[in-house]
Each structure stands twice: as C-alpha cells, then as structure tokens.
From TrEMBL:
It comes from the Eukaryota. InterPro entries: Inosine/uridine_hydrolase_dom, Ribo_hydro-like. This is Uncharacterized protein LOC105032165 isoform X2. The keyword Signal applies. It comes from Elaeis guineensis var. tenera (Oil palm).
Length: 883
C-alpha cells in the first residue's frame, strides 16, 4: 500500500473513531442518546447488524432491547440463547431479550396479551401450533433454519456461555419487552425480520405509538431487479433464467411469487399494519441492498481485519456461508442486507439536523408505497383468506371489498399463483408496491448504496469502510470467546474401553429429541453394556425438536463418556411430503410445551457439559458439496451414513435391534433403500401408535381436533409408519395404551428420589420435577405426561421379563392419506400385519427399574455438568482433581 493510501486509511479510521466516540460536535444535534429496539430473526447478516449497533457509542445510540422474530429464519429456543451469548461476549447482559409468548387472538379479532409471533397474524388463533403458509419459503435443513439456528456450527464453537438462558415461564416475552422498552421513552425501532411482533404491538397498544420516533425497515423490493439467477451473457439458449429481474428475492418461491422479499413475505398483513401506522418510516429495500453485494475484495479485506472477537465471529460466519454456498456466485448473490440497514439508520440519526434522510451510505428518495396482502379480484371467498372466509363480520373489522379481501397465497404451489408454461408466478403477497393515491404511504426509501469516495480503495462502497472500522474498534469490544473465556480450556473426547467386557445386543436408537427421548437416551447409556451395546443414534428432524437440537445429544453423550457413539441426522420432513412444508409437524406447538422447550430441554440443556462434538455445516466434494470447506472431517453425518457404517462393522452373526421413539421416517428410508435391512434387523421396538378399538380411547394429537385417534409419532409421518409396520420386519409395538400406564410424575419422582444421586439421576429428577411443576402452573403444559411414557420402550427392551409383561399378537394396518385419520392404527383381520403388542405390565416394577439404573454408580457420568467444566477450565490441571 502506498503512503498516500496509508494516510487516507488512517484518516478514515480516525473519522470512524471520532464518530463512534461521539466527539464530532458538528453532527451531534441532540444531547440524549437514541433509544433503539431491534427486532431480528437472528439470521447471519442480522448478527452483523446487531454487532454494528453494539459497537456504537452509547452516548449517541443506546440499544435498549432485542426481540426475536420467531416465524422466519430461526427457531426461538436456539435464537434466544445465541443472543444471550453474543450480549455476554459484548458485556451487555443489561439488554433484555424478548422471545415468544403463548397469548392468542380470539376469533373476533381481540388480541390477548403476549402473542408470541410464531405464526403470521392471518394464521394466529389461540395456539402456537399452526400452518407455515409463508414460512415454508425458508428451507428447513441445510442452507436454511438448521444452519441459522446453529450459525453453521460456529455458535457453540466460538461464543462464550454466560449465565442468562431461556427458562420456561421466566423468559421475558416479545410483547412484554416491547411494551416495557417503548413505554420508557422515545424509541427508534429497527425491523430486520418479519413484522409480526411489531404489528401486534401496534394493534394492541395504539396509545404507545407516540413514543415511537421512527421505524427503520430492511425488507421489500420497490423498483428492484434481482441480479441473481440470471443466465451468463454467453450462455446457451438452454439456460432458463430463475429469479433474474424479479422485484423479490425468494429463490424458493419465484415460480409462484416473484414480487416479494423474505422479510415482508413472512407476514404481509403485519407489514401492512406497520407501513400504514402513521409513524415515520425509512425503508432499506432490495433496491439498495442489491447494490452492495459482498465482493471478493471486501471479503479479502475483512479476512485481514479481525482485531476483535466480534469481527472474528462475523468473518467466520461470512466465510462458512461462502464456503457452503450452493453455487459459485456467492460474491454476486450475498448482500449486506441487515448490516447495511443498521449503517443507514445510524448515519441518518447522526445527521438528524439535515433533511431527506441525508446519510453517508445510501442515496435516498421519497416514494408512495403499500404492502400487498391479497391478490385481485377482491371480495372473493375461495377458502384462502381466514380474515373473510365464512365470516359474517370480517376479522379485525376489515373492509369486505378492500385490499385485504382477495386471494391470499396459501403456499409455494398455490395453483392460483402458478402460470402454466411460465416459471414466473402472478401472486404479489408481500410486494412493497409503488402506488398512487390514498392507498400509498410516503416512505423514505434507500435506492442505492453510495460508492466509496476513495476511488483508489479496493472497497467500492462507502459502508464497507465503516463496517470494518466499527467492528474492529477497540471500544465496546467483546471480552472473550468460548476458548479464551477460560484460562485453562481444553477439549477432551471421552471414549470407553470395553476390551475385557462381553458386549450385549447391538442397539440403534432413533429419536426425535423430545424430553422423554433424552431421558431414554440416558437410560440406554446406563444399562450395562453386557446387556445393550448402543451402536449409534439416528435423529428425526421432523419431530418434537428442530434439527439443530442434535447438539444436545452430543452433550449427553459427552457427559456419559460416550463420545464414541456416532449420531446421524435424518430427514427434516415426512416421507412423501415436499422438502419445503410442514404438513404434519405443524401440529407441534412452537411455544411453551413445544419446540421452544424441546430445543432447550426446558431450559436445562445449557446445564449439561459442553461436548467438543457438535453439528457443523462443514462439507466436502466427496459428499456432493460444490467445494470442500476448511474442515470437512467435522461434517455432520447423515442418518443413512451412520446406519451403513454400523452395518458394515457388524460381526456376521450379529443382528441389530432398533428402538424408535419418534416418527418412523429414518427407518422407512432404511427399508426403502437397504434391501438387506430385514436380514440384519432382529427386532424393532416402536414406542408409539394408538390402536383404534371398541373401547374408544382417544389418541394424543391434541392440536388436530379432526384426528381423534392418532398418536403423535405415527401422525408425524403416517406414510413412514405404514411402510415400517406393514413391512416384513419383526415389530414389537409399545402403544399409547401401554405408555399411559406409566405417566405418574409422582411415582417416577418418588423412585428417583430413593435412588443414589448420580449426576444423571439428578438431571433426570430436575427435568421431570420441572415438567410436573409446569404442568401444574400453566395450561400450555397440560400434555407433559405424553413424554413420560416414552421411556417405557427402553426399559422393556433392557429388562422386559422383570416387568411381567402381557403381549398380544394382532393384525394391524396404518391409515395414511387423510388428515383426519393419518397415523391411526386399526385392526385388520384380512390384510393386516401381525405385530407383537405390549398390552400390560407391572408399572411399579417399571418405576423401580428406571430409577435403579439411573442411580447405579457404574457407567455413570464422567463430567457432571457445565458448572464442573467451568471449574476445571478455571484452574491449572494439577489443581482440578476432585472438582
């Protein structure tokens, strides 16, 4: 770098430093700091925006609260703990984080307190379970929510772990945090996710609008033309453009809706409420963000400027995103969406004495826009619009022939939106459309990123300079990462030595990571290896927990000294359903008692010791990736790969016993793809299913009233259940009727209380007593007993005769293809498959056996908790003995 460029660089750094320190008197026009509330879906670029705001001088810009947009790119339980860890790293535990809530909206449109924002307003009823009308545009697994929930595996490897964490019924809700923050004084709101949370706030608290100074929004596309998905200039005529030239950016949905951008599409009606609230709005749409892609020059400059922990976390996040990008166009298709918005917002606020949104980073203009919430013709009743269909009075008293009364897009394959013979759809839901007349709202819009004033710089946008300088400033910097948080941190893998032990039957456990499943896993690890040799774990990503919760499995295995056991991640959708959708899993609540609690193990997951193993997005060409990442050896194995590895290592005389505690998706895929499966599988113990009989006992799918007789594990993938149960495998069914014999919290807690206090027994007791307490305290936890019966399969597998069981053999069939009957198991004397069914047993023997194994000092935890690890890593190795 020449001397003149070095001088310019130094001057830029000095200007940035003075700005952040608030010493530039000419631009500070208000003595009080700007109070900011950030509503985020915690996507990768959201983290950049958050950290950029946290680095500002608090005398100018004071981030007062963060709330989580829980119906977009992330899942609430994973998002809230990541935010707590980032704030802990940045020494900002004073900032409240709001997530979720279990309130609902009555049929008459009354908004009850603490609606959680898990569902778009059009789908919100009195439950947190519901359809993914808009969210299905976001991929669930790799490249989607799985990678965002885990930040590609970086979240657990990099961020320090503080003392704040999600805990049931104690976690501040989104609406609570919004109300508290905005009630306290004039507030600027920055929205970088869907608008559900803030729209609900405005609709329920109109008296607090006066406290909102300004709204900054990243989202929408007004006059934008998507630069991605285009054919190269010299391409052949066979190249078909994808989203090239579209106003929107939904790469999964342009064939039905080429107009919408992800954030606004997440809840168009909510966005409409925000835009039409009467509060001043600055919009940073795709029009502007499309002009600031992450260039190779910016990437290389960033790689060389990582002087702070926050800069390192951002760069590593950006790098793994690039390295796992689906094609070779990363530098022209990944943009500075939310971070650019935070920069524009800060700069406009800093230059508040000037007019028309003057700022350093974007060219601005005023436009009249609205948000399209339904498609013409208006005033139709085609079953797509719950605000109007079947109602004498429209919900929220909406105008019957107004802009909300048309067809509302129902999904990615909505036939109304598709044009035969054309790969561009006609639906406009979520389109931030430029209009004239009274329907439009005057909005300040960023239309283009400003070029770098230094024409000699390799960075072609002014904001690039600010972003790198601000993140690398020594002020308000992160204190440590996970490794440097502890002076004597080290990674250790624990693998047992079974050299002189006679190993028992090979067992593979298939789980969907519910609370009962984790207790089952602990039980299997406590059974003497002479009885059960746990060879591997298969994970269903379409059950009671989101796929990123696989990290908790690694932590349990680490706790028990079994880092040798492989864990394979299975499908995230049910057999025969689209890869983007939620046909069956939508029956599981998102909030309390559902995903939020499963993903965090009811707030207790972070008390477990931290395993060096974790999910990562690392990949290699060998497994079909477009390129190798830095550490392909850390790639997360798939369920089928783990299965194949186990079967290859079997002795010729060995056969595998399978225990399934979730939907049967993984096993169905094994049956469909492995023609030798039946010859190497000895028995399959299936925990689940409800047999419809003359007694009329109902199932447990409490969120689907039309299906009275199904059980969750079968309902979550009825085609897989049908394929497995009606196959030639030897099935032993532990149905709902048997599980219901052991759902007494009182009995199981009494037995555990009498057992020796091993670390695993203490964890089980704490989890079960918490679930019992929650069930008593709040109606959203009324179903806690369904998880108690899930341990029965493991106890029966390990020590069946001592339960004095009664077995029946019956011909059964599984119903599939009708949502009102999906997953039901019926007696079919003519064509049914004969299966062994556990019909009765001694429940007292079960409770005793369960507790005895947990209290056994053999095969006990080698590291009891995260607290124990903290103590170990805080002292020299020679002083940690006995800790």
């Amino acid at each position: 770098m020449g001397m003149s460029r070095m001088v310019r660089r130094s001057l830029c750094m000095l200007v940035a430093l003075l700005g952040v320190l608030g010493l530039m008197g000419s631009v500070v026009v208000d003595a009080r700091p700007r109070r900011i509330l950030l509503d985020t879906d915690v996507d990768t670029d959201d983290l950049f925006a958050l950290l950029y705001l946290l680095k500002q001088n608090r005398s100018e810009f004071d981030l007062k609260a963060v709330t989580i947009s829980a119906n977009a790119w992330t899942d609430a339980g994973h998002a809230v703990n990541q935010l707590y860890d980032i704030l802990y790293m940045m020494n900002r535990d004073d900032i409240p984080v709001g997530v979720g809530g279990d309130g609902g909206i009555l049929d008459d449109g009354t908004i009850l307190p603490n609606v959680g924002g898990y569902l778009p307003i059009i789908e919100q009823g009195m439950s947190t379970a519901g359809d993914c009308r808009y969210r299905q545009a976001i991929p669930i697994g790799s490249g989607g929510r799985l990678d965002i929930d885990s930040n590609y595996g970086l979240r657990r490897s990099f961020l320090p772990q503080g003392h704040r964490r999600y805990f049931p019924l104690q976690q501040p809700t989104t609406q609570q945090v919004m109300i508290d923050t905005i009630s306290a004084g004039p507030t600027t709101v920055i929205l970088i996710g869907s608008h559900t949370n803030f729209a609900l706030f405005l609709m329920a608290n109109p008296h607090l609008k006066k406290n909102i100074e300004h709204i900054y929004i990243m989202g929408g596309g007004v006059r934008s033309e998507n630069p991605t998905g285009c054919c190269p200039k010299n391409s052949s005529t066979s190249c078909i453009p994808r989203q090239c030239g579209d106003h929107g950016n939904m790469f999964t949905a342009y064939t039905s809706n080429p107009y919408a951008e992800f954030n606004v599409f997440g809840d168009p009606f909510a966005a409409y409420q925000v835009f039409h609230s009467g509060i001043p709005i600055t919009l940073v749409p795709l029009d502007a963000t499309n002009t600031i892609p992450v260039t190779e020059q910016f990437f290389m400059s960033f790689q060389q400027q990582q002087d702070t922990y926050e800069a390192q976390y951002c760069f590593q996040s950006l790098k793994i995103t690039r390295d796992t990008w689906f094609d070779n166009q990363f530098y022209t298709s990944f943009f500075m969406w939310d971070s650019f918005t935070s920069g524009v917002a800060v700069s406009i606020m800093r230059n508040a004495d000037k007019y028309n949104g003057v700022n350093e980073f974007a060219e601005m203009e005023y436009l009249n826009v609205t948000v399209v919430t339904s498609n013409k013709p208006y005033c139709i009743n085609d079953g797509s619009n719950p605000f109007f269909d079947g109602r004498a009075i429209p919900k929220f008293n909406l105008q019957r022939d107004g802009v909300h009364s048309g067809h509302v897009q129902t999904g990615l394959q909505d036939s109304f939106c598709l044009v035969p013979g054309n790969n561009k759809g006609i639906c406009e839901d979520g389109y931030t459309k430029e209009v004239t007349g009274s329907e439009g709202v005057r909005v300040l819009v960023a239309k283009k990123a400003k070029p770098n004033q230094d024409v000699h710089s390799p960075l072609d946008r002014e904001f690039f300079i600010s972003f790198l300088d601000v993140l690398n400033l020594p002020q308000h910097t992160g204190r440590f990462n996970f490794a440097t948080q502890f002076p004597y941190y080290s990674e250790t893998l624990y693998k047992p030595d079974f050299t002189n032990r006679s190993l028992g039957k090979p067992v593979v456990f298939d789980m969907d990571m519910s609370a009962g499943d984790f207790l089952t896993l602990l039980y299997l690890l406590k059974v003497p290896v002479e009885t059960i040799n746990l060879k591997g774990i298969l994970v269903s990503g379409n059950g009671w927990a989101n796929a990123a919760t696989i990290d908790v499995i690694y932590d349990v295995l680490h706790m028990m000294g079994r880092d040798d056991i492989p864990v394979g991640l299975g499908n995230v959708t049910a057999l025969g359903t689209p890869s983007l959708g939620c046909k069956y899993v939508k029956a599981i609540p998102h909030g309390s008692g559902g995903f939020l609690d499963s993903d965090t193990v009811y707030g207790l997951a972070r008390t477990l010791p931290r395993s060096p193993r974790r999910y990562t997005a690392e990949n290699s060409v060998k497994f079909g990736a477009p390129r190798n990442t830095d550490h392909p050896e850390l790639r997360q194995p798939l369920a089928m790969e783990v299965w194949q590895s186990i079967t290859r290592e079997l002795n010729p005389s060995d056969k595998i016993t399978l225990l399934t505690n979730g939907p049967l998706t993984n096993l169905a895929n094994i049956v469909l793809s492995d023609e030798n499966a039946s010859s190497i599988i000895q028995n399959v113990y299936i925990v689940g299913g409800h047999i419809v009989d003359e007694h009329g006992e109902k199932g447990n799918v409490f969120t689907v009233p039309s299906n009275e007789y199904a059980e969750f594990n079968m309902f979550l993938d009825p085609l897989a259940a049908k394929k497995v149960i009606e196959s030639d495998l030897q099935i032993i069914l532990i149905p709902l009727s048997a599980q219901r014999k052991v759902v007494s919290f009182k009995s199981i807690l009494k037995s555990l209380k009498l057992a020796d206090k091993t670390p695993e027994a203490l964890f089980a007791y704490r989890l079960l007593s918490l679930m019992q307490k929650l069930r008593r305290q709040h109606q959203t936890y009324h179903h806690m007993d369904i998880f108690l019966g899930e341990m029965l399969g493991a106890v029966f597998l390990a020590d069946g005769p001592n339960l004095y069981p009664t077995m029946q053999i019956k011909p059964v069939s599984v119903l599939a293809g009708n949502i009102g009957k999906d997953g039901q198991i019926v007696i079919n004397g003519k064509n049914g498959k004969l299966v062994s069914i556990l019909s009765n047993f001694n429940s007292e023997a079960y409770y005793s056996q369960f507790a005895n194994f947990f209290g056994d000092r053999r095969q006990s935890a080698v590291v009891a908790s995260f607290d124990e690890q903290e103590k170990k890593w805080s002292m020299p190795p020679n002083q940690t003995e006995g800790v």
